[in-house]
């Protein structure tokens, strides 16, 4: 007899009651190749489902991203509950409860600080908790949150203020004995978008930052960013410089080029790659070619993914 977790039964029931607004499946494989080392190949399969309903001031939203992945020797399942919350909103306030995304970062290519969990495949998920957002005027938002992390209750206070050409937001996050204070902002200077953020953490004391600039090209966008940040939440912060160029070559074809350099104590490590996306009526095909360089043997990375709308 198979016993299903209570949360899975609850979510499955919601999926039947509330209409599904989006459904996709993605199949992917990626291989890493280095001299003198056997190739490492990982395959993944992920299902993306979105459902929700609005009834007056109340909104119910459900986003599931369950996945399974393997490397030839082991296979793991990821439940993938990205969001599952109920929200009630009025002209000057919002109150929500459940699992909801809680992004704090301003950086586009680096993450100085985050409270969101990331699964084994790099997908960001929400955190369970209660949130209150107050809007005293059209340019101000005060956000209060109590959320669960590592089995403990954490708290957040954020204040955002918008101006004519820029906005700033300050955060105070209480993580038990550790506190994180952050200030970030972005603004338009002529045709460029300038942005940045800085975080000061206690116990132990450290600081992290990111600063970047972004601009447009015909049918495309470029971004240059540097900082002391983690490549992914939960990883060790590193001094790094990152760049990305994306362009829509035609209605069906898009490509992007990215590069990143890590300035570690024992040397400079770099990675660069190109990604090509071919869209069709019911989905898209993505091809990736990248390389990693630095102390030690270089590595080549080759990947392919297909995404289908259901």
Q: Short summary of the structure?
A:
The chain has one helix spanning 6-17, and strands at residues 20-34, 37-55, 58-64, 67-70, 75-78, 81-89, 93-100, 127-137, 140-149, 152-162, 166-175, 178-189, 192-201, 206-217, 220-229, 238-248, 253-264, 267-280, 283-293, 299-309. With 310 residues, it is mainly beta. It has an 18-stranded antiparallel beta barrel.
Looking at this protein, list some descriptive labels:
18-stranded antiparallel beta barrel; single chain; globular; 68% strand; Porin; mainly beta; 310 residues
Describe the model.
The protein is 4% helix and 68% strand. The protein is mainly beta and 310 residues long. The chain has a single domain, classed as Porin, CATH 2.40.160.10. The chain has an 18-stranded antiparallel barrel. The two termini are 31 Å apart. The mean pLDDT is 92.
Low-pLDDT stretches? none
Number of strand elements:
20
Strand content: over 45%
Structural class, please?
mainly beta
Tell me the series of helices and strands, N- to C-terminal: HEEEEEEEEEEEEEEEEEEEE
Distance between the termini: 31 Å
Tell me about the largest β-sheet: 18 strands, antiparallel, barrel
The backbone outline, from C-alpha atoms, is: globular
Rg on CA atoms, Å: 21 Å
Level-2 CATH architecture? Beta Barrel
Count of helical regions: 1
Kindly give the count of domains: 1
Find the CATH superfamily.
Answer: Porin
Give the CATH level 1 class: Mainly Beta
Q: What is the helical fraction, as a range of percent?
A: under 10%
Task: Draw up the topology in text.
Layout: H1 6-17, E1 20-34, E2 37-55, E3 58-64, E4 67-70, E5 75-78, E6 81-89, E7 93-100, E8 127-137, E9 140-149, E10 152-162, E11 166-175, E12 178-189, E13 192-201, E14 206-217, E15 220-229, E16 238-248, E17 253-264, E18 267-280, E19 283-293, E20 299-309
Antiparallel strand pairs: 1-2, 1-20, 2-3, 2-4, 3-6, 4-5, 6-7, 7-8, 8-9, 9-10, 10-11, 11-12, 12-13, 13-14, 14-15, 15-16, 16-17, 17-18, 18-19, 19-20
């Amino acid at each position: 007899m198979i016993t299903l977790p209570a949360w899975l039964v609850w979510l499955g029931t919601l999926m039947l009651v509330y209409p599904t607004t989006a459904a996709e499946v993605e199949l992917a494989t990626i291989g890493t190749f280095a001299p003198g080392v056997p190739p490492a190949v990982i395959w993944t399969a992920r299902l993306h489902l979105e459902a929700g309903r609005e009834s007056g001031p109340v909104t119910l939203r459900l986003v599931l991203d369950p996945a399974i992945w393997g490397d030839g020797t082991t296979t793991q399942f990821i439940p993938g509950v990205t969001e599952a919350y109920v929200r009630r909103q009025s002209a000057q306030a919002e109150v929500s409860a459940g699992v909801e995304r809680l992004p704090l970062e301003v950086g586009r290519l680096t993450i100085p600080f985050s409270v969101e969990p990331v699964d084994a495949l790099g997908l960001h998920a929400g955190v369970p908790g209660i949130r209150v957002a107050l809007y005293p005027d059209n340019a101000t938002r005060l956000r209060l949150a109590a959320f669960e992390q590592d089995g403990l209750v954490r708290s957040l206070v954020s204040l955002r203020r918008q101006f004519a050409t820029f906005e700033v937001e300050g955060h105070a996050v209480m993580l038990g004995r550790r506190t994180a204070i952050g200030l970030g902002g972005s603004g338009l200077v002529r045709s460029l978008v300038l942005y940045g953020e800085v975080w000061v953490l206690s116990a132990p004391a450290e600081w992290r930052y990111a600063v970047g600039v972004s601009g447009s090209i015909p049918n495309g966008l470029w971004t240059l960013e540097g900082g002391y940040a983690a490549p992914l939440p939960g990883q060790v912060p590193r001094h790094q410089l990152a760049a990305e160029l994306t362009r829509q070559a035609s209605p069906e074809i898009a490509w992007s080029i990215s590069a990143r350099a890590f300035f570690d104590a024992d040397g400079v490590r770099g990675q660069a790659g190109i990604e090509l996306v071919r869209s069709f009526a019911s989905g898209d095909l993505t091809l990736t070619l990248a390389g990693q360089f630095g102390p030690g043997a270089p590595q080549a990375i080759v990947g392919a993914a297909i995404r289908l709308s259901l």
